[in-house]
Amino acid sequence: MEIHEIIEKSTEAMKKEPAFLKLHGKIMAAGDTHGDVIVSKAIIKKFFEDGYDAIVFLGDYIDRAPSDVGSSIPNINYLLEMKAKHRSKIFLLKGNHEANYAIPCFPHEFEYEVKQCCPSLYEAYIKAFMEMPLMALVNNVYLAHGGFPRKGVQIEKNDVDAIEEITWSDVAISPVYRGAGFKFDEKMLSQFLNKIKAKAFIRGHDYTMNGIIAYKKCLTIFSSRKYENEGNGGILIAKIDGHIKSIEDIKIERWKDGKWIEYEPLYLE
Length: 269
What we know:
By secondary structure, the chain is α/β, with parallel strands linked by helices. The protein is 29% helix and 21% strand. The strands form three sheets. Strands 1-5-6-9-11-10-15 form a seven-stranded mixed sheet. The protein has a six-stranded mixed sheet with strand order 4-3-2-12-13-14, covered by helices on one side. Helix 2 links the parallel strand 2 and strand 3.
């Protein structure tokens, strides 16, 4: 498919999806890839080889590409192509970088990259980003880019308040301060998870928390070579095999030297 057709078909597929996805079965989750098309391809290969039912990417596919890739365009094109071809298996949640049209983020090289090579496609990419879901309930595990909505889960994909809370928020123990979103503590997270009958939260967004579990309920993962030495380290995916009893039932794997290996997260209270 040509790139304009890829964007159109993936947008069409995501337009049919709700803001809050509900998925069941054996599900993988991948963190921020930030332009790292090499890792994205390794993750998709792993997904199909392991025979899982679906994979959910947690947002931030653009900007901050590794130097050997140079641009985040190949990464977003690849993921949109996979979405267009496997619409019931591959799901792309919105990150704060995809939501730059609603709340500006920095750095945002993507607009410059597109307008340098193919300016006529920029608006098409934005339309695709606008149709990306915001969050997912996978069996009984909640997935989103950064946080969760405080006024309930009946939200619209492009509600700016919902976008801010879900794509910009952070764990209270994180050292990061962004000036957007909110910091959630253990009590706030537990109340939300109880409302939606979830046992754990998997997120991306904050590389300082990469590979770290907060409050025994909140796992942060990154899936980019550029950030593999941040936090507890690693290019990570999470594997959710049906309903869990606790976050310890979620398996985490690390991509290192071209192979996937088991990974031990760091627990912080």
